[in-house]
Design goal:
It comes from Chitinimonas arctica. The chain is α+β, with helices and mostly antiparallel strands. The protein contains 14 helices and 17 strands. It has two domains: 296 residues, 3-Layer(aba) Sandwich (Rossmann fold); 99 residues, no CATH class.
Length: 409
């Protein structure tokens, strides 16, 4: 599980740490704040670090129609390095901290360190050499990274099976980070040929479901029925040239002797159902099995959703929030909806709801929403969502900055 995240010089994120110290991220986190506060940017920063581990930064930029120069903060115009730190805690492996500096000119990390439990260095770049700790049966390895051609992190090219086991765990967690901030029904209606994942916007949803084992497809159908009881089957077909077609089968009672069966192409299915299906496909599936058993048992990594309430009927929100709280995967969402907060138990809301705001310098910062004196007082009388409705968000940045100042003194 990801316990902490730090990034500096990424868009509006300057010296940004999530969550605010001394707290740690839990299995569910909800980000709130005004438009432009930086909520989507935080999800993009997680996604960026995940693609460093994959070595796929250029394709990630192309997908988002960005340039490398778009990544760095406008507040630090001459600074080309993006500093980051990802803290992961895994039972049996301890606490793994991956830190580094990504050079936007060279498109790779020119400094990296991985430490285990704050003592052991599993990976380190020094004097142009990448030093990687080995296992009991394999010696340590050195790579002359200064002369090597690679993209993103050095994790992208090392053979994790032959080196320190913590590196395999870290790469699995980081490379499986998924930010679905571009999720849209228009994309989910498209046909695709391959679907190792559902894609940034859900454009490979049909192909992804087509490739699921029968038991996983059945489990996904069962989960969808909790939201839409009329759904009886998720039907996928391989078409000519490898395209995959997704169809939703619904069963209704009929005035005739036999029940009526309605089969609809994904292009004809309502937006809300498609969005719920995409969310379910990411948070309610069985654990991954494409790695070694030791790594596979860790399950999948963190998944991030922007404006989780979009396109979903309010009557379904309680079920959705419960699904997110019970998910096998760690979940981070952003929301503008008080309904999302109102279905959170008070104790979870106190820890999990984080307010993003811009400080006086324009940098995105974060505090726990219910650490603020005004919201803390209201929470004693109202539900989390009611506090959210009863609060003027425009007034909170000043209160947050005052709280941070007091905490720092």
């Amino acid at each position: 599980m990801i316990k902490g995240f730090y990034i500096d010089n990424f868009k509006s994120l300057v010296d940004f740490r999530l969550p605010p110290t001394p707290h740690q991220l839990g299995s569910f986190t909800c980000l709130v704040g005004l438009n432009g506060a930086g909520k989507s940017t935080v999800l993009q920063a997680f996604d960026f670090v995940g693609h460093l581990a994959n070595g796929q930064v250029a394709s990630w930029l192309k997908q988002r129609e960005w340039k490398a120069s778009d990544l760095t903060s406008r507040f630090l115009k001459l600074k080309k390095l993006i500093q980051f730190e990802l803290e992961v805690e895994v039972p049996g492996e301890g606490r793994i901290v991956w830190s580094g500096a990504f050079n936007t000119t060279e498109m790779r990390c020119t400094a990296e360190t991985v430490t285990v439990d704050g003592v052991e260095q599993a990976l380190h770049i020094k004097d142009g050499q990448l030093l990687v700790a080995g296992t009991d049966s394999k010696p340590s390895v050195q790579y002359p990274v200064r002369s090597m051609k690679y993209e993103g992190s050095t994790l992208s090219f090392i053979n994790v099976r032959d080196v320190h086991p913590a590196l395999g765990v870290l790469k699995h967690v980081a490379a499986n980070l998924r930010s679905l901030d571009l999720l849209s029904p228009q994309s989910m209606r498209r046909r695709a040929k391959e679907g190792a994942d559902i894609g940034y916007g859900g454009e490979r949803l049909g192909a992804f479901i087509h490739g699921l084992p029968a038991k996983d497809k059945a489990a996904l159908t069962k989960a969808l029925k909790k939201f839409y009881p009329q759904v009886s089957e998720l039907s996928t077909t391989a078409l000519r040239a490898g395209w995959k077609d997704l169809r939703i089968v619904e069963q209704y009672d009929s005035v005739q002797t036999a029940p009526s069966r309605l089969e609809s192409d994904a292009r004809q299915v309502n937006d809300g159902l498609l969005r719920v299906l995409a969310i379910l496909s990411q948070v309610s599936m069985s654990k991954t099995t494409d790695h070694s058993k030791r790594i596979g048992d860790l399950g999948q990594s963190c998944v991030l959703f922007d404006e989780i309430e979009n396109g979903i009927n309010p009557e379904l929100m309680q079920k959705l929030v419960r699904l997110l709280l019970d998910a096998e995967r760690q979940v981070i969402v952003t929301t503008h909806s008080p309904l999302v907060l109102n279905y959170l138990p008070d104790d979870i809301a106190r820890e999990a709801v984080l307010l993003l705001y811009r400080n006086s310098a324009g940098h995105t910062k974060v505090v726990r929403l219910f650490d603020l004196p005004s919201t803390q007082k209201k929470l004693a009388l109202l539900g989390p969502g009611e506090v959210f409705v009863d609060t003027h968000l425009e007034a909170l940045p000043a209160e947050a900055m005052a709280l941070v100042k007091v905490q720092a003194s």
